[in-house]
Amino acid sequence: MHKSKKINIITLGCSKNVVDSELLMGQLRANHVEVVHNSNEPAHAVVINTCGFINDAKEESIDTILQNIEVKKAGLVNKVYVMGCLSQRYRKDLEREIDHVDGFYGTNELTRIVGELGATFRTELIGERVITTPAHYAYLKISEGCDRTCSFCAIPLIRGKHRSKPVEDILKEAEQLVEGGVKEIILIAQDLTYYGVDLYAGRELSGLLEKLASIPGLDWIRLQYNYPADFPVGLLNVINNHPNICKYIDIPLQHINDRILMSMRRNFNKKRTLQLLDAIREKIPGVAIRTTMIVGYPGETDEDFRELMSFVKDQAFDRLGVFTYSHEEDTRAYRLQDNIPEPVKLARMEELMNLQQDISLIRNNSRVGSVMKVLIDRQEEDYFVGRTEFDSPEVDNEVLIKPSKGIRIGQFYDVRITSADFFDLYAEAWKD
Ligand code: SF4
């Protein structure tokens, strides 16, 4: 029995899981339970907040569980608990197949796991959390679940139907974050643009943004996971009218071929995609657009892929992520034959990312000589590393700044771009 009283929370997966871990840590800390995050130190208990979205993520989650069972067998931790999406989706299988786990919890069982860890769930603490990101930025989840039926996606099976958080709770949480020193808030959800449909009988993201933008001390508000179909175009004016809302639109498109988009049940087609992208660029001059694509979807022909390549070439997105199709049981696409061989999927992903690399270099080179505002995230070897308003943490580009007197982490600075790489920029502090 290890004497430590500490609880170690390990977070896997996406930013929504990060928020769930932070809420759990907030409850434990309020109960005076010592809690650490992603630590290798011995502990009384480890809680693994898993991801169960696609194969690679599932494998990583299972590996992490098995590793921690070995740590337990070595006597460096007394209890191993598993929570989150993998546990929500496969609890029965996991309970049957993996021994030495002291409890499996779903994505909506915070009260239960807090109790199991010897603490009392405190409802008055709703929204209070221990921030695990650098202190100057934080994710803010404005809703849970999703009402969409994208054929390839298991998230609605895991996270359930769309539930918006009341505006008052979101504003209170945002104010608490800013009081705590947060300067950048990244709004997240499964489908950000659907906010309010369940609670206020209409799309209320624009109204919410107006209120958030008026919070003193909140320098950057960033939107992630906007859905293209039924996109509330009025939102673009709100983004354009507020200097503290990043001119950055993250909008996963997944593909451009009409037959594939139909099969994916995206309720969107090529013609409307082009119209929406034009509207975004027209309404928000200089906007950065980030999107993600899936390659190797069942039935994707080489022609379909060529169409996707030329679309990405024409649009020259600022930021692009590419995934290979993952054949997920219980999703609608699971009824289709997963007929694109893995090597072909990987080759298509590589070809698309190589194209994006060239696009990104051209875009980055066009920034050389310009002065840009950056937020410093960390210091690494010979550089301070920061981001512009066009870069979300962990997924987008970075700016590497030569050390200069007075630069501090968590602060904004104007820097002059001196050179460019495929994905990163190099800069020096700028004093006009
Ligand atoms: S919008 Fe589609 S892809 Fe995104 S979480 Fe919902 S079902 Fe999944």
The CATH top-level class label of the largest domain:
Alpha Beta
In whole angstroms, the N-to-C terminal distance is 61 Å
Give the count of helical stretches: 12
What is the rounded Rg? 22 Å
How many structurally independent domains? Answer: 3
SSE class: alpha/beta
CATH topology annotation of the largest domain: pyruvate-formate lyase- activating enzyme
Shape: globular
CATH architecture type of the largest domain: Alpha-Beta Horseshoe
In CATH terms, the superfamily of the largest domain is: tm_1862 like domain
Spatial arrangement of strands, main beta sheet: 6-9-10-11-12-13
Which ligands appear in the coordinates? iron/sulfur cluster
Largest beta-sheet characterization: 6 strands, parallel
Q: Give the ordered list of helices and strands.
A: EHEEHEHEHEEHEHEHEHEHHEHEHEEEEE
Share in helix: 25-40%
Percent strand equals 15-25%
Mean pLDDT: 96
Number of strands: 18
pLDDT < 50 runs, ≥5 residues: none
